[in-house]
Amino acid sequence: MRRFAHFAALDWSGARGPRQRGIALAVASGTGAPQLVRPGHIWSRAEILAWLQHVAASRADMLIGFDFSAAFAFADCDAYFPQWDLSPNNLPALWALVERLTRSDPHYQIDGFLSHRDARRHFRHARGDVGDLFAPGAGRLRVVEQHQRATRQAASVSNFNLVGAAQVGKASLAGMRLLHRLHPALPLWPLDPVPGSGPLLVEIYTGVAARAAGIAAGRSKIRDGAALDAALAALDSPPVGVTGSISDHASDALMTAAWLRAVAGDAAPWLPAPLTEAIASTEGWTFGIV
Questions:
Q1: pTM over 0.85, yes/no
Q2: Distance between CA atoms of residues 88 and 256, nearest Å
Q3: Contact assessment for residue 181 and residue 190, using Cβ atoms and an 8 Å cutoff
Protein backbone atom coordinates (compact mmCIF):
# COMPACT_ATOMS: atom_id res chain seq x y z
CA MET A 1 0.00 0.00 0.00
CA ARG A 2 1.04 3.59 -0.52
CA ARG A 3 2.86 5.21 2.38
CA PHE A 4 1.88 8.66 3.66
CA ALA A 5 4.10 11.05 5.62
CA HIS A 6 1.31 12.83 7.51
CA PHE A 7 -2.01 11.71 8.99
CA ALA A 8 -4.74 14.17 9.92
CA ALA A 9 -8.00 13.58 11.80
CA LEU A 10 -10.87 16.05 11.84
CA ASP A 11 -13.48 15.88 14.60
CA TRP A 12 -16.45 17.69 13.06
CA SER A 13 -19.64 19.46 14.14
CA GLY A 14 -23.00 20.20 12.57
CA ALA A 15 -24.04 22.77 15.17
CA ARG A 16 -25.31 26.19 14.18
CA GLY A 17 -23.22 29.33 14.55
CA PRO A 18 -20.05 30.92 13.15
CA ARG A 19 -17.59 28.91 15.30
CA GLN A 20 -17.78 25.41 16.72
CA ARG A 21 -16.21 24.18 19.94
CA GLY A 22 -16.88 20.66 18.66
CA ILE A 23 -14.33 20.97 15.84
CA ALA A 24 -10.79 19.74 16.44
CA LEU A 25 -7.98 18.96 14.01
CA ALA A 26 -4.83 16.95 14.72
CA VAL A 27 -1.88 15.76 12.62
CA ALA A 28 0.53 12.89 13.24
CA SER A 29 3.77 13.21 11.28
CA GLY A 30 6.60 10.73 11.02
CA THR A 31 6.92 8.81 14.26
CA GLY A 32 6.24 11.76 16.57
CA ALA A 33 3.32 12.38 18.88
CA PRO A 34 0.18 13.71 17.20
CA GLN A 35 -0.31 17.44 17.57
CA LEU A 36 -3.38 19.65 17.53
CA VAL A 37 -3.51 22.23 14.75
CA ARG A 38 -4.01 25.63 16.41
CA PRO A 39 -4.57 24.27 19.93
CA GLY A 40 -7.09 26.31 21.90
CA HIS A 41 -8.52 27.85 18.75
CA ILE A 42 -12.29 27.74 18.21
CA TRP A 43 -12.59 26.80 14.55
CA SER A 44 -15.10 27.93 11.99
CA ARG A 45 -16.08 25.56 9.21
CA ALA A 46 -14.78 28.13 6.70
CA GLU A 47 -11.35 27.96 8.36
CA ILE A 48 -11.33 24.17 8.12
CA LEU A 49 -12.24 24.42 4.45
CA ALA A 50 -9.39 26.88 3.88
CA TRP A 51 -6.94 24.55 5.67
CA LEU A 52 -8.02 21.62 3.49
CA GLN A 53 -7.82 23.70 0.32
CA HIS A 54 -4.25 24.66 1.27
CA VAL A 55 -3.39 20.98 1.76
CA ALA A 56 -4.84 20.21 -1.67
CA ALA A 57 -2.99 23.09 -3.35
CA SER A 58 0.33 22.21 -1.71
CA ARG A 59 0.00 18.53 -2.70
CA ALA A 60 0.92 17.50 0.84
CA ASP A 61 1.64 13.81 1.35
CA MET A 62 -1.25 13.47 3.80
CA LEU A 63 -4.07 11.05 4.59
CA ILE A 64 -6.96 13.03 6.08
CA GLY A 65 -9.85 11.46 7.98
CA PHE A 66 -13.10 13.33 8.59
CA ASP A 67 -15.63 12.25 11.20
CA PHE A 68 -18.89 12.61 9.29
CA SER A 69 -20.69 10.59 6.63
CA ALA A 70 -20.10 11.42 2.98
CA ALA A 71 -23.50 10.06 1.93
CA PHE A 72 -26.89 8.73 2.89
CA ALA A 73 -28.15 5.21 2.31
CA PHE A 74 -28.72 4.46 -1.37
CA ALA A 75 -28.38 0.72 -2.04
CA ASP A 76 -31.45 -0.35 -0.07
CA CYS A 77 -33.89 1.71 -2.19
CA ASP A 78 -31.72 2.45 -5.24
CA ALA A 79 -32.13 6.12 -4.27
CA TYR A 80 -31.09 8.54 -1.56
CA PHE A 81 -34.57 10.08 -1.38
CA PRO A 82 -37.29 7.86 -2.89
CA GLN A 83 -40.33 9.71 -4.27
CA TRP A 84 -38.33 12.93 -4.79
CA ASP A 85 -37.69 13.83 -8.41
CA LEU A 86 -34.50 15.70 -7.47
CA SER A 87 -32.93 12.64 -5.82
CA PRO A 88 -29.38 12.32 -7.26
CA ASN A 89 -27.62 9.08 -8.18
CA ASN A 90 -24.03 9.55 -7.03
CA LEU A 91 -21.97 11.23 -4.33
CA PRO A 92 -20.92 14.44 -6.14
CA ALA A 93 -24.49 14.99 -7.29
CA LEU A 94 -25.73 14.52 -3.72
CA TRP A 95 -23.27 17.12 -2.45
CA ALA A 96 -24.34 19.50 -5.23
CA LEU A 97 -28.02 19.10 -4.27
CA VAL A 98 -27.25 19.84 -0.61
CA GLU A 99 -25.31 22.94 -1.66
CA ARG A 100 -28.06 24.09 -4.01
CA LEU A 101 -30.61 24.10 -1.19
CA THR A 102 -28.32 25.60 1.47
CA ARG A 103 -26.35 28.20 -0.49
CA SER A 104 -28.04 31.06 1.37
CA ASP A 105 -27.37 29.51 4.81
CA PRO A 106 -24.40 31.14 6.60
CA HIS A 107 -21.47 29.28 8.19
CA TYR A 108 -22.05 26.16 6.08
CA GLN A 109 -25.28 25.43 7.91
CA ILE A 110 -27.95 23.24 6.39
CA ASP A 111 -31.34 24.73 7.35
CA GLY A 112 -32.32 25.26 3.72
CA PHE A 113 -32.02 21.55 3.00
CA LEU A 114 -33.83 20.28 6.08
CA SER A 115 -36.68 22.75 5.64
CA HIS A 116 -37.29 21.77 2.01
CA ARG A 117 -40.69 20.10 1.79
CA ASP A 118 -39.42 17.04 -0.09
CA ALA A 119 -36.18 16.61 1.84
CA ARG A 120 -37.72 16.86 5.29
CA ARG A 121 -40.04 13.91 4.58
CA HIS A 122 -37.06 11.52 4.92
CA PHE A 123 -35.78 12.63 8.35
CA ARG A 124 -36.63 12.35 12.03
CA HIS A 125 -36.33 15.99 13.08
CA ALA A 126 -37.48 15.86 16.70
CA ARG A 127 -39.78 13.92 18.94
CA GLY A 128 -43.17 14.06 17.29
CA ASP A 129 -41.71 15.58 14.11
CA VAL A 130 -40.93 12.61 11.89
CA GLY A 131 -41.10 12.67 8.12
CA ASP A 132 -43.60 10.31 6.54
CA LEU A 133 -40.77 8.64 4.54
CA PHE A 134 -38.46 8.11 7.51
CA ALA A 135 -37.92 4.34 7.68
CA PRO A 136 -39.65 2.65 10.64
CA GLY A 137 -37.46 2.02 13.64
CA ALA A 138 -33.92 3.40 13.63
CA GLY A 139 -33.94 4.66 10.03
CA ARG A 140 -32.14 3.64 6.86
CA LEU A 141 -28.49 2.55 7.01
CA ARG A 142 -25.74 2.49 4.41
CA VAL A 143 -24.14 -0.84 3.52
CA VAL A 144 -21.06 0.03 5.60
CA GLU A 145 -23.27 0.82 8.58
CA GLN A 146 -25.20 -2.42 8.24
CA HIS A 147 -21.90 -4.31 7.96
CA GLN A 148 -20.28 -2.68 10.97
CA ARG A 149 -23.34 -3.44 13.08
CA ALA A 150 -23.53 -7.06 11.90
CA THR A 151 -19.83 -7.61 12.64
CA ARG A 152 -19.91 -5.54 15.85
CA GLN A 153 -17.09 -3.30 14.65
CA ALA A 154 -19.17 -0.22 15.48
CA ALA A 155 -22.72 0.82 16.35
CA SER A 156 -23.60 3.55 13.90
CA VAL A 157 -26.81 5.59 13.80
CA SER A 158 -28.84 6.36 10.68
CA ASN A 159 -27.93 9.69 9.09
CA PHE A 160 -31.64 10.28 8.57
CA ASN A 161 -32.04 10.58 12.33
CA LEU A 162 -31.46 14.13 13.58
CA VAL A 163 -32.38 13.50 17.22
CA GLY A 164 -30.12 12.72 20.20
CA ALA A 165 -26.47 13.04 21.12
CA ALA A 166 -25.42 10.22 18.80
CA GLN A 167 -27.02 11.68 15.66
CA VAL A 168 -24.62 12.59 12.85
CA GLY A 169 -27.06 13.68 10.15
CA LYS A 170 -26.60 17.42 10.65
CA ALA A 171 -22.81 17.15 10.77
CA SER A 172 -22.83 15.03 7.64
CA LEU A 173 -24.95 17.52 5.70
CA ALA A 174 -22.66 20.38 6.76
CA GLY A 175 -19.66 18.28 5.75
CA MET A 176 -21.17 17.61 2.32
CA ARG A 177 -21.04 21.34 1.64
CA LEU A 178 -17.27 21.19 2.15
CA LEU A 179 -16.87 18.05 0.05
CA HIS A 180 -18.74 19.82 -2.75
CA ARG A 181 -16.03 22.50 -2.73
CA LEU A 182 -13.05 20.21 -2.24
CA HIS A 183 -13.75 17.50 -4.82
CA PRO A 184 -12.09 16.53 -7.11
CA ALA A 185 -9.04 18.64 -6.21
CA LEU A 186 -8.90 16.65 -2.97
CA PRO A 187 -9.81 13.05 -3.85
CA LEU A 188 -11.99 10.91 -1.60
CA TRP A 189 -11.52 7.16 -1.14
CA PRO A 190 -13.22 4.93 -2.28
CA LEU A 191 -15.06 7.21 -4.71
CA ASP A 192 -11.66 8.01 -6.22
CA PRO A 193 -8.64 5.71 -6.57
CA VAL A 194 -5.73 6.22 -4.20
CA PRO A 195 -3.45 8.71 -5.97
CA GLY A 196 0.25 8.01 -6.36
CA SER A 197 1.09 11.27 -4.56
CA GLY A 198 -0.60 14.15 -2.79
CA PRO A 199 -3.39 14.18 -0.19
CA LEU A 200 -6.36 11.85 0.14
CA LEU A 201 -9.59 12.08 2.16
CA VAL A 202 -11.20 9.16 3.96
CA GLU A 203 -14.30 8.95 6.12
CA ILE A 204 -13.55 7.84 9.69
CA TYR A 205 -15.44 6.86 12.81
CA THR A 206 -13.55 7.81 15.97
CA GLY A 207 -15.17 4.95 17.88
CA VAL A 208 -13.26 2.49 15.66
CA ALA A 209 -9.99 4.16 16.62
CA ALA A 210 -10.98 4.05 20.29
CA ARG A 211 -11.63 0.31 20.16
CA ALA A 212 -8.29 -0.25 18.44
CA ALA A 213 -6.72 1.65 21.35
CA GLY A 214 -8.29 -0.76 23.83
CA ILE A 215 -11.19 1.44 24.94
CA ALA A 216 -14.43 -0.44 25.54
CA ALA A 217 -17.49 0.26 23.43
CA GLY A 218 -19.64 2.99 24.95
CA ARG A 219 -16.68 4.52 26.78
CA SER A 220 -14.80 5.99 23.86
CA LYS A 221 -14.77 9.61 25.05
CA ILE A 222 -11.44 10.52 26.67
CA ARG A 223 -11.32 13.66 28.80
CA ASP A 224 -8.08 13.08 30.72
CA GLY A 225 -4.52 13.50 29.45
CA ALA A 226 -3.22 10.35 31.13
CA ALA A 227 -6.00 8.25 29.60
CA LEU A 228 -5.22 9.74 26.19
CA ASP A 229 -1.54 8.85 26.51
CA ALA A 230 -2.48 5.28 27.47
CA ALA A 231 -4.63 5.04 24.33
CA LEU A 232 -1.81 6.45 22.22
CA ALA A 233 0.62 3.91 23.66
CA ALA A 234 -1.73 1.12 22.55
CA LEU A 235 -1.43 2.57 19.05
CA ASP A 236 2.40 2.61 19.24
CA SER A 237 2.40 6.40 19.42
CA PRO A 238 4.46 8.65 21.68
CA PRO A 239 2.44 10.47 24.36
CA VAL A 240 1.03 13.95 23.94
CA GLY A 241 1.79 14.71 27.57
CA VAL A 242 -1.31 16.73 28.48
CA THR A 243 -1.65 17.14 32.23
CA GLY A 244 -5.19 17.03 33.59
CA SER A 245 -8.33 17.45 31.54
CA ILE A 246 -8.66 17.61 27.78
CA SER A 247 -11.75 18.04 25.63
CA ASP A 248 -13.12 14.86 24.12
CA HIS A 249 -13.06 16.55 20.70
CA ALA A 250 -9.33 17.19 20.98
CA SER A 251 -8.64 13.69 22.28
CA ASP A 252 -10.72 12.14 19.49
CA ALA A 253 -8.70 14.01 16.87
CA LEU A 254 -5.34 13.20 18.46
CA MET A 255 -6.12 9.51 19.00
CA THR A 256 -7.60 9.05 15.52
CA ALA A 257 -4.64 10.71 13.80
CA ALA A 258 -2.38 8.21 15.56
CA TRP A 259 -4.72 5.35 14.62
CA LEU A 260 -4.68 6.34 10.95
CA ARG A 261 -0.90 6.25 11.02
CA ALA A 262 -0.95 2.81 12.65
CA VAL A 263 -3.34 1.13 10.19
CA ALA A 264 -2.97 2.96 6.87
CA GLY A 265 -0.07 0.76 5.78
CA ASP A 266 -2.14 -2.43 6.11
CA ALA A 267 -4.00 -3.80 3.10
CA ALA A 268 -7.19 -4.78 4.95
CA PRO A 269 -8.69 -1.28 5.50
CA TRP A 270 -8.39 -0.57 1.78
CA LEU A 271 -10.01 -3.85 0.69
CA PRO A 272 -13.25 -4.38 2.68
CA ALA A 273 -15.06 -7.40 1.27
CA PRO A 274 -18.55 -5.86 0.88
CA LEU A 275 -17.28 -2.79 -1.04
CA THR A 276 -18.24 -2.61 -4.73
CA GLU A 277 -17.85 0.07 -7.37
CA ALA A 278 -21.55 0.87 -7.08
CA ILE A 279 -21.29 1.34 -3.31
CA ALA A 280 -18.13 3.44 -3.70
CA SER A 281 -19.88 5.82 -6.11
CA THR A 282 -23.13 6.19 -4.15
CA GLU A 283 -22.57 5.49 -0.45
CA GLY A 284 -18.83 5.56 0.13
CA TRP A 285 -17.22 3.63 2.98
CA THR A 286 -15.85 4.19 6.48
CA PHE A 287 -12.10 3.58 6.55
CA GLY A 288 -11.16 0.82 8.96
CA ILE A 289 -14.42 -1.13 8.66
CA VAL A 290 -13.38 -4.44 7.13
A1: yes
A2: 32
A3: no
